[in-house]
């Protein structure tokens, strides 16, 4: 191969993300007749999210395929995509990425950190709320509920906006912490509920569509510029195609997963749209706090909300 | 001159030791508060986990420097308690110390090069920079070890005996 | 090929007594230069190498162990264990193992057992006329029970890596942990009976002595119950249990034992030393995970195995053999992180339960802690007992077989580890 890239991801080989990453590398190898080879390493073998983002930035690793919000580790405003209940669906999210706001974030990351987003259409499934004892049917149901959160500023803020009590628990201790009642609630992307077995300890799963996690393909800018324009097109087309593949995979796979979770005692209930809207209102009340903390740029909340139903 | 260098090293060792004690205390207090505020008062603190985590990294690297002077790093001792003052033993020691100094100079200089970017990266909810959390303690630790390695080197060259080597755990006997 | 040269160089470096952490840094740097990869990666990995919440358990459990030591609590555990089993042929050897079982219920860390309890055990065995290398071997081997009986930091990490249920994994470790203790006691009994080791006979304790020592040790014996109950009732997480252990020991020390401030300061300083020594190795090892991964060793391994082995026991054999070899050159946690997912894929292909795999994997990994050249438990115990590596090896090897026997037993009979969690969780 003329070009060999080191690439990393956090998902396991068997996760949708892992399968899509393999699909992507196959497409690139085939499309370039073996001239470009991407060695992808699953399951965080190359390090945690923070480390891999930095490695892509310093160029010791050429590519990182992971949650789009990983970008907020470099450019903080990228974290806006993790604002709870802000986005209506994946289309809304995609419109935001393509908007001037999304482009501004991309350019900032290229200029300041030398990291480019080559694709951001690898959609997984929305995040659901999971509770030990009840569904979330009104905004009152989360008041004061101790909720597990990752140590990510936006996540903590989300629960504060909702009126819940965020408790930071390491990912590895999450299962036990819920089962023993250190916390009563958590959230999970729908397709992560079965593999993490969280339904065993938090069987009340509210389909809240709290956030819309997607996976992005991050590439070191120098490595990117060393490719000819044709090869750049080849790589970004392959990345896009793999994204479509993952989106289908996640959606098709979940029907069977959901059945299995129900058979094993999990219960599902959809959160009514008007309740989601009330959560959005709660967030709006806190918007000054969020702007002050640098979690969301001034004026973006309304601009993003305006993208909601446009085409 | 050599005596002065030894004295400086001794003072630095003491200072590092105090820092490590303080960091240990910090971890214990932060973690204890974390449980107490969450369970007893039902108002979880949001910074305690990060305070203890930063303390842990600082403890690891400052501590690595601190224990280097007493040669307490885990090494393979094929023969325990043998006379470490033979010519062969001292020559190997000099080679070893030079190797250690070399790798740490490389490590510290790379860390220095990463400094501008690391200063821009803010981690966790406390938003401490990656530099303060990780690179600064690493660089201080490297500096301490380099100073102590040079001292060991000088001692081996001049044949001066060091205070009894104590290992990571044996002092509490 | 280049990896073999690196390994050779690593061995030379540690043989000329360069501390292991620095030897790792040196060979990693040489590898990166050879592979034309920026050395920035090295700084990046080392700097962030201990940035993990789970690792906070290390200083805390170490501190609890050293406090128990300086305040004389460890002596009380040891006295009680002594009153119960010292009259069996093998005497203090059994006491050493039994005390570790009690300790294991409180400690998630091998180092805390080897460093805290080990100091008392080896001193007592030396005074009673046991050979230092035999005492060292028992201390090192029995310390490995710590992470098998819950709570266990290593299990937390395994559960994290492979996404199995941590509760089940914890409960699954109880029977294998007790079996491990049993196999060691059988071995000690055999060595004593056949006069291969001189084990001075100690008088059977009177009932009164058993009661008195039990009373003296009741608070430390209660500690594991408090810790497990605290975790199970949701007051604290397994990592936080470390600080509860520290506070518990402090409370006993302040209210019941005559302790002095120096005791606390000494213990804290010792815990800080041991923490730095241990975690600096983990920080330096961080880059190795990266090197092994990018050299595509995991994929090659996985393909090789699935081409040649198709039975469950065959897969277990391969995994056990690999972990034994890996354990010689790598620390446990990096092995878990790099190879956990690979082994899981191979194992689930032939229908092995992930919990079953986890117990066998972790137990085998424990042996790595007492095999040279890389084995922290080994060096901690060598330092306390002041025995040389060759001497230590002469006494420890039968224990490899005792532990391996239990591992094979569990590999062959899954119900040994799965029965209890199935009972508890359905
Ligand atoms: Na023991
Ligand atoms: Na080993």
Automatic annotation (TrEMBL), chain B:
Role, per record: Part of the tripartite ATP-independent periplasmic (TRAP) transport system.
Record has Cytoplasm as a keyword: no
Protein name: TRAP transporter small permease protein
Localization per record: Cell inner membrane
Residues in Tripartite ATP-independent periplasmic transporters DctQ component domain copies: 27-158
Topology relative to the membrane: Multi-pass membrane protein
Description of how the protein assembles with itself and partners: The complex comprises the extracytoplasmic solute receptor protein and the two transmembrane proteins.
Molecular function GO terms recorded: transmembrane transporter activity
Pfam families (alphabetical): DctQ (PF04290)
Keywords, alphabetical: Cell inner membrane, Cell membrane, Membrane, Transmembrane, Transmembrane helix, Transport
Species of provenance: Sneathiella litorea
Family: Belongs to the TRAP transporter small permease family.
Residue ranges of the TM segments: 15-39, 51-68, 92-111, 131-150
GO terms (BP aspect): C4-dicarboxylate transport
GO cellular component, one term: plasma membrane
Main location: membrane
Automatic annotation (TrEMBL), chain C:
Keywords: Cell inner membrane, Cell membrane, Membrane, Transmembrane, Transmembrane helix, Transport
Entry's localization field: Cell inner membrane
GO cellular component, one term: plasma membrane
Location, primary (coarse class): membrane
A GO term, aspect molecular function: transmembrane transporter activity
Transmembrane annotation, as ranges: 6-34, 46-68, 97-122, 134-161, 167-192, 213-235, 241-259, 271-293, 305-326, 333-352, 358-385, 397-421
Its membrane topology: Multi-pass membrane protein
Domain TRAP C4-dicarboxylate transport system permease DctM subunit: 7-415
Classification via InterPro entries: DctM, TRAP_DctM
Annotated signal peptide: none
Family designation: Belongs to the TRAP transporter large permease family.
Xref: PANTHER family: SIALIC ACID TRAP TRANSPORTER PERMEASE PROTEIN SIAT, SIALIC ACID TRAP TRANSPORTER PERMEASE PROTEIN SIAT-RELATED
Subunit structure: The complex comprises the extracytoplasmic solute receptor protein and the two transmembrane proteins.
Function: Part of the tripartite ATP-independent periplasmic (TRAP) transport system.
Protein name: TRAP transporter large permease protein
């Amino acid at each position: 191969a003329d070009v060999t890239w080191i690439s990393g991801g956090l998902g396991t080989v068997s996760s949708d993300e892992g399968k899509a990453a393999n699909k992507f590398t196959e497409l690139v190898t085939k499309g370039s007749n073996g001239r470009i080879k991407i060695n992808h390493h699953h399951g965080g073998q190359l390090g945690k999210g923070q480390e891999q983002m930095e490695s892509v930035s310093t160029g010791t690793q050429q590519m990182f395929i992971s949650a789009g919000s990983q970008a907020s580790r470099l450019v903080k405003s990228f974290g806006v995509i993790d604002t709870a209940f802000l986005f209506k669906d994946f289309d809304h999210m995609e419109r935001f990425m393509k908007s001037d706001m999304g482009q501004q974030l991309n350019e900032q990351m290229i200029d300041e950190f030398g990291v480019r987003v080559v694709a951001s259409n690898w959609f997984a499934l929305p995040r659901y709320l999971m509770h030990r004892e009840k569904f979330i049917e009104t905004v009152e149901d989360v008041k004061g509920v101790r909720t597990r959160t990752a140590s990510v500023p936006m996540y903590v803020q989300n629960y504060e906006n909702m009126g819940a009590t965020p408790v930071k628990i390491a990912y590895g201790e999450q299962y036990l912490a819920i089962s023993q009642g250190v916390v009563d609630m958590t959230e999970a992307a729908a397709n992560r509920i079965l593999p993490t077995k969280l339904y065993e300890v938090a069987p009340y799963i509210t389909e809240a569509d709290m956030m819309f996690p997607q996976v992005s393909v991050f590439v070191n800018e120098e490595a990117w510029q060393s490719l000819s324009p044709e090869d750049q097109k080849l790589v970004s087309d392959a990345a896009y195609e793999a994204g479509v593949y993952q989106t289908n995979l996640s959606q098709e796979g979940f029907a069977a997963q959901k059945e299995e979770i129900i058979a094993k005692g999990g219960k599902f209930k959809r959160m009514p749209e008007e309740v989601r809207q009330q959560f959005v209102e709660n967030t709006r009340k806190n918007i000054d706090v969020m702007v002050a903390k640098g979690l969301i740029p001034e004026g973006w909340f309304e601009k993003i909300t305006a993208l909601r139903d446009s085409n | 001159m050599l005596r002065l260098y030894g004295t400086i090293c001794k003072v630095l060792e003491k200072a590092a030791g105090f820092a490590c004690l303080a960091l240990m205390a910090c971890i214990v207090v932060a973690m204890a508060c974390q449980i107490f505020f969450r369970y007893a008062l039902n108002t979880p603190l949001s910074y305690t986990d990060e305070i203890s985590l930063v303390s842990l990294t600082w403890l690891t690297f400052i501590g690595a420097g601190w224990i280097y002077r007493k040669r307490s790093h885990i090494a393979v001792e094929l023969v325990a308690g043998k006379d470490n003052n033979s010519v062969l033993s001292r020559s190997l020691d000099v080679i070893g110390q030079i190797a250690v100094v070399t790798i740490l100079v490389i490590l510290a200089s790379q860390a220095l090069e990463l400094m501008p970017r690391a200063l821009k990266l803010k981690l966790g909810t406390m938003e401490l920079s990656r530099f303060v959390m990780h690179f600064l303690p690493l660089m201080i630790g490297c500096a301490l070890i380099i100073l102590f390695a040079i001292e060991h080197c000088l001692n081996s060259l001049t044949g001066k005996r060091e205070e009894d080597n104590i290992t990571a755990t044996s002092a509490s006997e | 090929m280049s990896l073999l040269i690196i390994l050779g160089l690593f061995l030379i470096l540690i043989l000329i007594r360069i501390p292991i952490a620095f030897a790792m840094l040196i060979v990693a740097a040489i590898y990166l230069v050879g592979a034309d990869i920026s050395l920035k990666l090295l700084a990046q990995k080392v700097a962030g190498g201990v940035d993990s919440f789970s690792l906070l358990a290390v200083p805390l459990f170490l501190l609890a162990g050293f406090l128990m030591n300086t305040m004389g609590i460890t002596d009380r555990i040891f006295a009680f264990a002594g009153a119960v089993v010292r009259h069996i042929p093998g005497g203090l050897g059994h006491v050493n193992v039994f005390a570790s079982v009690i300790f294991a219920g409180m400690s998630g860390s091998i180092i805390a057992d080897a460093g805290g309890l080990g100091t008392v055990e080896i001193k007592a065995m030396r005074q009673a006329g046991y050979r230092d290398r035999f005492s060292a071997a028992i201390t090192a081997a029995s310390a490995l029970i710590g992470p098998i009986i819950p709570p266990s930091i290593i299990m937390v990490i395994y559960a994290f890596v492979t996404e199995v249920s941590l509760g089940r994994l914890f409960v699954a470790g109880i029977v294998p942990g007790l079996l491990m203790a049993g196999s060691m006691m059988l071995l000690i009994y055999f060595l004593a009976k056949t006069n291969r080791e001189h084990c001075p006979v100690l008088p059977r304790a009177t009932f009164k002595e058993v009661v008195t020592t039990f009373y003296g040790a009741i608070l430390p014996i209660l500690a594991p119950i408090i810790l497990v109950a605290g975790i199970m009732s949701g007051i604290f997480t397994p990592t936080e249990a470390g600080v509860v252990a520290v506070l518990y020991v402090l409370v006993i020390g302040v209210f019941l034992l005559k302790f002095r401030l120096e005791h606390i300061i000494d213990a804290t300083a010792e815990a800080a030393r041991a923490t730095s020594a241990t975690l600096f190795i983990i920080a330096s090892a961080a880059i190795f995970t990266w090197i092994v991964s990018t050299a595509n060793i995991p994929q090659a391994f996985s393909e090789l195995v699935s081409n040649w082995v198709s039975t469950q026991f065959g897969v277990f054999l391969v995994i056990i053999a690999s972990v034994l070899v890996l354990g010689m050159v790598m620390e446990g946690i990096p092995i878990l992180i790099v190879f956990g997912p690979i082994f899981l894929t191979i194992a689930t292909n032939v229908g092995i339960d992930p919990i079953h795999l986890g117990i066998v994997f972790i137990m085998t990994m424990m042996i790595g802690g007492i095999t040279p050249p890389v084995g922290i438990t080994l060096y901690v115990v060598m330092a306390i007992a002041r025995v040389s590596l060759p001497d230590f090896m002469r006494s420890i090897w039968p224990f490899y077989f005792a532990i391996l026997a239990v591992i094979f037993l569990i590999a062959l009979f899954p119900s040994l580890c799965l029965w209890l969690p199935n009972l508890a969780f359905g």
